Amino acid sequence: MEEERQQPSNGHSKWRTFGVVTLITIKWLFIFGILGFLFVGGVASGYVAALVKEDPVRSGSFMDEKMNENALTGFVFFNDGITPVGQLRTEEDRRLVDLKDVPGSVIDALISTEDSNFYNHIGIDYKGFARAVKQKLLNESQQTGGSTLTQQVARRVFLSLDKTDSRKVKEIFLALRMERYMTKDEILSAYLNKMPFGNGSSGYNLYGIKSAALGVFNISDLHKLNIAQSAYLAGLPQLPSVYSAFDGKGQFNPKGFNRALERQHVVLSRMLETGRITQSQYDEALKFDIKSTLAPHREKAYNTFPYLMLETEREAAKLLVLQKNPKLTEADLGKVENSELVNNMREQLLRSGYRIYTTVDKKIYNDMRMIGSNPDNFSPYSKTKGLEQIAAVMLDHKTGAILGMLEGRDFNTEQMNYATQMTRQPGSTMKPIAAYLPALEQGLIQPGGVIDDSPIVLKDGQKGFHIPMNVNKKFSGLVTAREALNRSLNIPALKLFLYKVKIDSAWNFTRSLGITTLQPQDEYAQTGVIGGLSKGVSVEELTNAFGTIPNMGVFNDAYMISKITDAKGNTVYEHKANPKRVYSEQTAFLMTDMLRTVISDSRGTGHSLTSSFDAYGKIPIAGKTGSTQDYGDVWFMGYTPDITLGVWSGYKEQVNTLSKAGRARARSIWSLIMNEAVKDRPELFKTNEFTQPEGIVKATVSSVSGKLPSKLTRDAGLNVTDWFNKKYLPTETDDVLVDSPYITYNGINYVPQQSTPPDMVRTKIVIKREQSLAELMDEIQNAQAKLPAASRRPMSVFVPADAGEDAPSKTDPRADDGAAPSAPSGVALEPGSGASRIIFAANPENDVVGYRLYRSEGGSFAKYGSSVLAGDSQSFTDSSPAFGAGYYVTAVDVAGRESAPSLIVGGGSVLPGSSNGTAGAETAPPGSASTPGLPGDANPGETPSGETAPGDAGAGDLPPIEEQVIPPVTTP
Questions:
Q1: d(Cα 851, Cα 819) in Å, to the nearest integer?
Q2: Residue 45: its pLDDT value, please?
């Protein structure tokens, strides 16, 4: 065995061994190579898996959905449905285009530059990738990038734009997956609609080729792009922020344009290299003047029409929410719990490509904005008050469509829409809405009906009582409803509101006219009809309510959006007319006729429009003024048979009051707007007169009762002729005129006391009121006694202008003090041409009822002329004075006692026409120690009428009645 191992091998065996070893070595090298490859591959696979482990595997349907999802630009249009207001608020301008509408020049330019092998690769292009690496490593001037169009779309749609390894790997896998589920045309279409193209001439960020063509070249039809323009656009997506001819404000950017032009030359070169254009086309494109074809600068809609765009956003969002949530009301949308619904819908509205069609007439709107932004139409800016503001709404009351709106003076100063978002006290513009209209409808009043403009005492939870006043701090007495409205008297409106219509009925009627801002506490607002409301009203709603009058009692809720369509043109909302009759045609006509004379009557509060409205007399108009305390707000609600225009003016803070000129601002702006509207849109004013329906008749009634005239009223000329709803013609004959004796005290007529001398008593035809003024004055005096001293007024303030015509109901309240009055003082003679006037001072005693004049022509003194009652003019007139005539005055009390004579005036003095003496000289009365002798034998104590001249008896001075001073009382 040992020997065998030591036996040497022959040569043949050595070569064989070498071969075996070599084969074994190669085998093991091959095995180790495979193992190494597998190891490296495993590491690479693990690395790739780690990069994409959190990226979801997207299904084909999901990818398709995302590819077709676009944050599209929405647009707003004026009422012609063609003219754009502008695009909805976003920094993007994105418009979809079908691939068939993209010209070959654009596609060729794009593919030549971004992905020349697009139609052949599987999502990634190895050659293109290698070429991009080489260009990058060698820092070549022309660099094409390594991402395919598919990769770029994958990055844009599904991934972030960061430059990490993770994103790049995900991008490659997504591109491969997209190519499996989508066609080349679908991918190309997505690229053309989703890629950014820099800023456009209005400053918006352009997304998609259609937006780019419009924003850069103002070309909406892509087929109108030439090769040079196509190449220019195709080069932008690589670096859109660098290759942009416009900045974020839409201003020309020379640096960006020059870079974009260099990029265009690269694109043209690639098109030539790939055979997609000829040399001659290349040369022609290079020579083309791109700059001259750039789009002109355009302001964003939110710069040109900021108020209108924001109002459209708000209104459209509300409409879409209400449509999707039919159980909600518009009032519900103002609640906190629903605010998220509205906000979410607004966000969706801005990015979903909606088309919103408004009712707004561009010409009317521009006219209104021009007037509102002209500082010459307003008071100068005030450092303390700010900018005098204005708001107006013009609507077609036959449909409710808002034709124009003036939302404020300057959007940069104040973004709030004063026409729709602000609520203010309506002042007297509420009178037709909450008082006269419901009263007319219920037959409680007619234009010729009579209302007593005399004070009313209201209970006040704070001070105890409240006595409202008219603006002029006076009371007119018995007036017709027409006159009360013409002059905008507060008390007649309050009496209708409180005692005829009643508050709850008035507010229910007001709500039926579209006023939604009334609050539960307004049910107790006694002065609500003249503006004392919790929140007030908006210009839009008040204008809408007035629009029911020329629309013959039919309410159409005002609206600004007629239709909304989605990005595909499908209608998602359309306004549906819902007219409602809220009162009769007869009531509407009567109200219009009353509001017409608010303007035509010389005492009407709107009379200035007869000169400021250029078409007055050609186009019929009617309307109502309104103002609040100290002119913090002024209104004018006016209309023609075809349109209604409501205007408000004031300051942002109601406490700031308008200037003297500003008090007429609402009327002046109304006229300016109407003058422009008539000039620019004459077709809106085609109706020549207000319609008179059946059932309207003219009738003559008593002007002091509103009843049928009696013989007394006819004889006294107390008749008035006016329009009536035939249904509510009066059937009773006037019975308020009576022939009655009376005596006046503090301006009020009373029944004379039995002891009152006959010459102090008057008799005439007087008027029996529903509440006599004597009773009313007692009520006011009792109320004032319970008010703080600072809140009281003199009783004379509350006496109506026609108090002298009031029938007495109570006995003269003056009490006899038991003594004769003192002789009147301050007697003086005022000679005149053909007549002399004897004046005197009022006596201090409270029981004095009047005064007598005694005259002498050189003989005895005798009573002359009629007596003067206390409270009347403190003077007598001698219409035929004689030379040397003398006069004295006596006072008479309620018991008939007469005072001693006053000092004599005249007498021996030279009367008019004489050449010496002093007229008006006083002498002592007859019988006194200083009295000079009187000519003749007449007894100075006897008068021709048998009356005894007064003796020397006097009475102690009594203090005058204490005056109760009350400052003006304003409504809440």
A1: 16
A2: 40
Do residues 423 and 689 lie in contact, with contact meaning Cβ atoms separated by under 8 Å? no
Measured distance CA(62)–CA(342) in Å, rounded: 28
**What is the DSSP track for 323-366?**
HH-TT--TTGGGSGGGHHHHHHHHHHHHHBT-EEEE---HHHHH
Question: Dmax over Cα atoms in the chain, in whole Å?
Answer: 208
Model pLDDT for residues 725-748, shown as the tens digit of each residue: 999 999 999 999 999 999 999 999
**What is the three-state SS of 217-237?**
HCCCCHHHCCHHHHHHHHCHH
* pLDDT at 62 (0 to 100): 56
Q: Which residues contact 442 (CB under 8 A, 6 or more apart)?
A: 500, 501
Of 875, 864, 847, 750, the C-alpha closest to 807 is: 750
Residue 18 has a pLDDT of 58
292, 217 contact by CB (below 8 A) = no
Please state the φ and ψ torsions of residue 955, each to the nearest 5 degrees: -130, 150
CA dihedral 274, 275, 278, 282 (to 10 degrees): -10
567 contacts 577 by C-beta, under 8 angstroms: no
Structure tokens at 132: 């991009």
Beta carbons of 734 and 704 less than 8 angstroms apart: yes
pTM score = 0.74
d(CA 306, CA 917): 84
Residues in the chain where the model's pLDDT stays below 50: 1-12, 27-28, 31-32, 34-54, 161-164, 909-924, 926-972
Nearest-angstrom CA–CA distance, 329 and 325: 9
The dihedral through the CA atoms of 123, 126, 131, 137 has a sign that is positive
Total length of the chain: 972
